[in-house]
Q: What sequence folds into this?
């Protein structure tokens, strides 16, 4: 797996400087504005008694024009609903309230279950409370805080979720000895915690980022202190995948995703990312998505369109950031993967005028300098970044699941369809589908998202279901969803799926080629809300497929035999066909060509003419494409397709000759034998032939059911080239000879005493011949092994030719290397057989030409060195190419490499023994190669080799050479420092010479003594030391 570094995606910068501001304890001083809403154009008036319609209108006539009675209360008939001019509701209500006989009057106010948390700093959380922004408060009126059955996994730097002693292996990563729970997370339920940075089950936050992200997801809410979270009743699964510095490897992130998947997470929040496309992490995302988990990831903070992961994976919701004014934040990435926007903040501005920078406010560590000081406690921080935007979306998904909106595909479709469009109309690369609208995502509106078939679809299959997809769970009672389909196929049945958001309507089959109109007339959500509208056309229209044509007959039929070679192919269909040439295609193998078409019988029959078939040939015909006159492709065939047939036989064929074409050394008395593929007419007049030259005396004998003809004759002439041709022949049925599957005419040469060249390597025209390949010549008989009798030329000439015979019939010609990519021409001029006959002819091209291989250079596969009893053994192996020369270099105790010899080794060498080494010294080796192009390359070094010192043994070597003639070498070894005496005596015991008498060091000593003046004879050499004495025999000769 590629090693990728993933970092959290939070910006802490207030300006271009260092830290974001801390929020100190302060009381809100500015009251929050409240929007008053009522139904446009309506007021309610409560009279003191029941009035009929005329009385009502008369009573309010003086209030103003355009007043109408809409309806009367069923419970309190004195109360009526009046229509008034839009925009004048408060004015008209105020006037009515002053009328006599009126108890009360007011606009028709809109009421809802409203709830705002009482947290101290909630008023600073503009990302929650801003009007017409993400509609969180309206969403809380639908689902307040989610459900404890929903689990949101936080893959981050950990979470400050428990009181826990800092383990020893984490003490260098934080300041302090105890992890503490953030006070504002005390009411959160945490499940299945795990730390993939330290491989333990305590993912405590070492940075502060993960705690801030978790606060947006599920901070303690409505507890009279601090700030609020979105899905505060959902459970949180803290998973640490980023270290104390805020980074990690893809391995940990993939493990974190897998952990969440296997521990029942419903949502995964990943406020992290990087720019490496990690296939392992991607597979983890795929597995989680397929398991039904919704994944959300930050888009990145680099203001770039570059792919960013995991947010760019198709399975992950890519969350970008907007600031207070709903503009894309200056840092937020964008591009084709952008999906949903959420508040991420901009610490550079104060657009809401609350005298605080417009960041996302949550609780985390008081001291965020790394490593964090655990003992400094907690405070509230404004952060900015797509990291802050992401948990808004993940928490909204938690609310959606709690509300019964399930399935990753359905949830994403709902987010897309309910988002507040920003930027250009529709989805765009800067804002994706727009800003998340939590109220609508929770079913604030009931919308038809998609239909299948879609509006305008054609070629709809007759049994295709009608599938309707909604943005929220629907009431499955058939009376709550009604529709019409015209014309109506009938037989309708219903099946709900995907959490009752998808309705599949089965029916009796549609009719071929018919236009249908389907209209969803009513539908209600599971909470009783009626259908508000549709993102796709409703009603929608589609057209069914036309009837598919079938092939019902062929002529010839499948398996037909003995078909005339000029027979047409006739295809018959069950309905009229499109006669356009491109709409009917076929193959015929083998293909006779020359095809033409003729349609008949109301364009149901096509006749295909062609050039004549071959005789006695098996054909396969395949109809590959055809369309009806309505444009519907072929539906199938009631007869075999492809179909096979065989044409009639034409005539006999000559299938074998003996001798074969090109045969040599044919005995002069050998018969000519002809073999046919069937029984033949044996009448001599039916079979004629020619032989040049003609030996005469021909006789005939038929055998093997009259398929084999043996032609005897007077003896051929030695060493003669004959050409035999069969001119005419008839089968037993009287069909003339159609041809031959072997050469006709054919040539052969009779036996002769002269040698013939029958094979060359390389063959004539061969390419890519290795530059070191031998030239090989093969003769038809044993040859004289004297290579001096062979004469040849080679142009250009590589030189260095060495000739070797094998089996006396094959001659190998070695040479210096050919040149790379060079054309050569070789010609054999002379060679002599064992019988002394000179080469005169060749059955293969002579001269012959070939081209050598391209230059690939020398590639070393292995180079090593190891100690041995005799020194250091250097060995090597090449994987490509072969040098023409090799030199070995040696380095002593890390010194510069030096050549060990000047002439070098042959190119085929693979080993060198360095005997000139000493114990206790480190040696390294290099290899220098020279190729045929003159290119020199050096490889190495090997690992160092050091010989262990050997224990010294007192010894006197045998003098050499023996017999000595002028000079002799007398070598000995001393195991310790001391006095040594080396003396030469004759056999009478007389001292002839004292060669050494001195104090010597331990080790080997080599003495060279000139004995030119010493008479020939046998002498004794004696070595004396404190170790004892040794004697060896010395022979001096002339």
A:
């Amino acid at each position: 797996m590629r090693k990728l570094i993933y970092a959290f995606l939070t910006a802490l910068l207030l300006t271009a400087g260092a830290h974001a501001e801390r929020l100190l304890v302060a009381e809100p001083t500015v009251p929050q504005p409240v929007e008053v809403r009522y139904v446009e154009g309506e007021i309610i008036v409560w009279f003191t008694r029941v009035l009929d319609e005329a009385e009502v209108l008369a009573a309010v006539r003086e209030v103003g024009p355009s007043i109408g009675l809409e309806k009367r209360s069923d419970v309190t008939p004195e109360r009526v609903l009046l229509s008034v001019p839009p925009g004048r509701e408060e004015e008209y209500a105020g006037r009515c309230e002053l009328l006599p006989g009126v108890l009360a009057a007011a606009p028709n106010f809109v009421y809802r279950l409203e709830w705002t948390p009482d947290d101290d700093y909630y008023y600073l959380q503009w990302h929650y409370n801003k009007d017409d922004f993400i509609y969180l408060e309206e969403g809380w009126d639908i689902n307040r805080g989610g459900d404890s059955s929903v689990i949101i996994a936080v893959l981050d730097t950990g979470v400050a979720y428990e009181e826990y002693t800092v383990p020893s292996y984490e003490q260098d990563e934080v300041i302090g000895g105890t992890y503490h729970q953030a006070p504002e997370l005390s009411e959160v339920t945490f499940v299945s915690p795990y730390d993939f940075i330290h491989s333990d089950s305590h993912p405590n936050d070492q940075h502060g980022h993960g705690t801030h992200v978790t606060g947006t997801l599920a901070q303690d809410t409505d507890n009279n202190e601090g700030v609020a979270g979105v899905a505060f009743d959902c459970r949180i699964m803290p998973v640490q995948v980023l270290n104390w510095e805020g980074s990690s490897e893809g391995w940990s992130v993939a493990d974190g995703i897998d952990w969440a998947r296997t521990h029942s997470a419903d949502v995964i929040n990943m406020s992290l990312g990087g720019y490496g496309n990690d296939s392992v992490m991607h597979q983890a995302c795929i597995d989680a998505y397929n398991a039904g988990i919704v994944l959300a990831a930050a888009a990145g903070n680099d203001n770039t369109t570059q792919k960013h992961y995991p947010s760019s994976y198709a399975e992950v919701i890519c969350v970008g950031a907007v600031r207070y004014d709903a503009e894309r934040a200056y840092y937020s990435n964008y591009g084709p993967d952008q999906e949903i926007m959420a508040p991420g903040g901009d610490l550079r501005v104060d657009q809401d005028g609350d005298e605080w920078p417009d960041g996302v406010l949550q609780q985390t560590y008081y001291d965020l300098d790394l490593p964090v000081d655990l003992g400094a406690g907690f405070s509230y921080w404004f952060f900015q970044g797509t990291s802050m935007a992401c948990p808004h979306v993940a928490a909204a998904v938690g609310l959606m699941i709690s509300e019964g909106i399930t399935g990753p595909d359905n949830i994403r479709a709902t987010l897309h369809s309910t988002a507040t469009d920003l930027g250009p109309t529709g989805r765009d690369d800067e804002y994706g589908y727009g800003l998340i609208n939590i109220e609508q995502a929770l079913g604030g509106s009931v919308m038809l998202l998609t239909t299948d078939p879609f509006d305008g679809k054609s070629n709809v299959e007759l049994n295709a279901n009608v599938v309707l997809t909604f943005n929220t769970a629907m009431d499955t009672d058939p009376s709550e969803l009604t529709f019409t389909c015209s014309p109506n196929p009938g037989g309708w049945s219903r099946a709900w799926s995907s959490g009752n958001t998808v309705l599949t309507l089965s029916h009796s089959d549609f009719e071929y080629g018919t236009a249908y109109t389907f209209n969803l007339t009513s539908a209600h959500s599971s909470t009783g809300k009626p259908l508000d509208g549709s993102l796709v056309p409703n009603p929608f229209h589609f057209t069914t497929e036309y009837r598919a044509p079938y092939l019902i007959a062929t002529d010839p039929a499948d398996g037909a035999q003995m078909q005339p070679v000029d027979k047409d192919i006739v295809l018959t269909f069950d309905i009229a066909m499109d006669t356009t040439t491109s709409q009917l295609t076929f193959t015929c193998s083998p293909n006779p060509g020359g095809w033409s078409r003729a349609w008949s019988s109301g364009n149901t029959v096509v006749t295909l003419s062609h050039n004549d078939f071959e005789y006695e040939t098996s054909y396969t015909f395949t109809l590959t494409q055809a369309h009806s006159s309505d444009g519907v492709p072929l539906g199938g065939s009631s007869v075999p397709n492809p179909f096979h047939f065989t044409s009639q036989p034409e005539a006999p064929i000559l299938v074998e000759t003996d001798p074969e074409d090109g045969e040599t050394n044919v005995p002069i008395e050998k018969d000519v034998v002809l073999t046919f593929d069937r029984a033949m007419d044996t009448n001599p007049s039916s079979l004629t032939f020619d032989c040049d030259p003609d030996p005469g005396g021909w006789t005939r004998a038929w055998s093997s059911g009259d398929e084999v003809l043996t032609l005897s004759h007077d003896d051929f002439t030695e060493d003669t080239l004959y050409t035999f041709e069969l001119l005419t022949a008839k089968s037993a049925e009287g069909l003339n000879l159609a041809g031959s599957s072997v050469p006709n005419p054919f040539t052969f040469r009779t036996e002769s005493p002269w040698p013939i060249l029958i094979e060359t390597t390389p063959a004539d025209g061969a390419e890519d011949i290795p530059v070191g390949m031998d030239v090989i010549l093969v003769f038809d008989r044993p040859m004289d092994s004297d290579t001096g009798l062979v004469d040849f030329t080679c142009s250009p000439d590589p030189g260095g030719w060495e000739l070797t015979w094998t089996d006396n019939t094959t001659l190998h010609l070695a040479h210096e290397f050919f040149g790379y990519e060079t054309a050569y021409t070789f010609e054999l001029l002379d060679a002599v057989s064992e019988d002394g006959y000179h080469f005169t002819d060749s059955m293969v091209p002579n001269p012959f030409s070939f081209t050598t291989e391209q230059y690939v250079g020398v590639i070393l596969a292995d180079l090593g060195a190891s100690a041995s009893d005799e020194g250091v053994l250097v060995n090597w192996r090449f994987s490509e190419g072969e040098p023409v020369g090799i030199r070995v270099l040696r380095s002593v105790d890390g010194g510069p490499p030096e050549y060990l010899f000047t002439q070098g080794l042959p190119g085929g060498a693979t080993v060198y023994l360095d005997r000139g080494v000493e114990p206790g010294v480190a040696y390294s080796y290099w290899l220098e190669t020279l190729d045929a192009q003159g290119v020199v390359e050096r490889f190495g070094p090997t690992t160092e080799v050091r010989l262990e010192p050997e224990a010294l043994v007192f010894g006197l070597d045998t003098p050499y050479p023996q017999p000595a003639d002028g000079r002799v070498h007398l070598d000995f070894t001393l195991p310790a420092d001391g006095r040594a005496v080396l003396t030469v005596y004759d056999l009478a015991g007389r001292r002839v010479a004292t060669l050494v008498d001195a104090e010597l060091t331990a080790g080997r000593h080599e003495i060279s003594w000139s004995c030119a003046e010493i008479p020939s004879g046998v002498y004794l050499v004696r070595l004396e030391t404190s170790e004892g004495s040794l004697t060896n025999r010395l022979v001096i000769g002339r």
Q: What stands out?
A: The CA atoms of residues 266 and 782 lie 87 Å apart.
